[in-house]
Write a structure and sequence with these properties.
The protein has 4 helices and 7 strands. It has helices at about 5-35, 45, 65-80, 160-165; strands spanning about 50-60, 60-65, 85, 85-95, 100-115, 125-140, 140-155.
């Protein structure tokens, strides 16, 4: 093996190792996001996970642009969802060739307690099922959310189930 071939092999191994480390860092970012959501949507900590120009979108909750809007959304989220347990399942993460951007897809299974939109009606046990489509960007060596998009498959009252009532009104 020539020295140049050996250097190429090491360089390729370093690139592959970095890609795997990036994927693990993104998984940890998503796990931290879920943990903070389960801690009453801690807005001060959640907003640190996003880029300054980030977008968070998830109908029926809305679309929020930038850290200030995202922080306001999370500050009010616990009035609509006073308890939640986010289970992020089946990640598919792709890091681009620059190593500075990535995309990810996740499934969400979330038992939770929901109120009505104004937070005044009785609490109701609900199961949310959705698909996340995320974009990530590495800033200062740290992965952050650039865009979080949630596509809900069901937001269903537990006592009725998705066959009787796939989405709450």
């Amino acid at each position: 093996m020539s020295e140049s071939t050996g250097t190429m092999v090491i360089s390729e191994l370093e690139r592959r190792l970095q890609r795997l480390e990036d994927i693990e860092a993104i998984k940890n970012l998503k796990a931290r996001y879920a943990e903070l959501c389960d801690q009453n949507y801690n807005p001060n900590e959640l907003v640190k996970l996003f880029t300054d120009d980030a977008v968070w979108e998830g109908s029926p909750f809305g679309v929020f642009h930038g850290k200030a809007e995202i922080k306001r959304f999370f500050a009010s989220a616990s009035s609509q969802i006073p308890w939640a347990f986010h289970l992020m399942i089946g990640p598919e993460i792709a890091v681009d060739s620059s190593g500075m951007a990535a995309t990810g897809r996740w499934y969400l299974f979330e038992p939770c307690t929901m109120t009505d939109r104004e937070g005044v009606s009785a609490e109701e046990p609900v199961i949310q099922m959705a698909k996340y489509e995320d974009a990530y960007r590495k800033e200062g060596g740290e992965w952050k959310f650039e865009h979080v998009r949630i596509k809900y498959e069901a937001i269903t009252p537990l006592h009725q189930g998705w066959v009787a009532r796939r989405f709450r009104s």
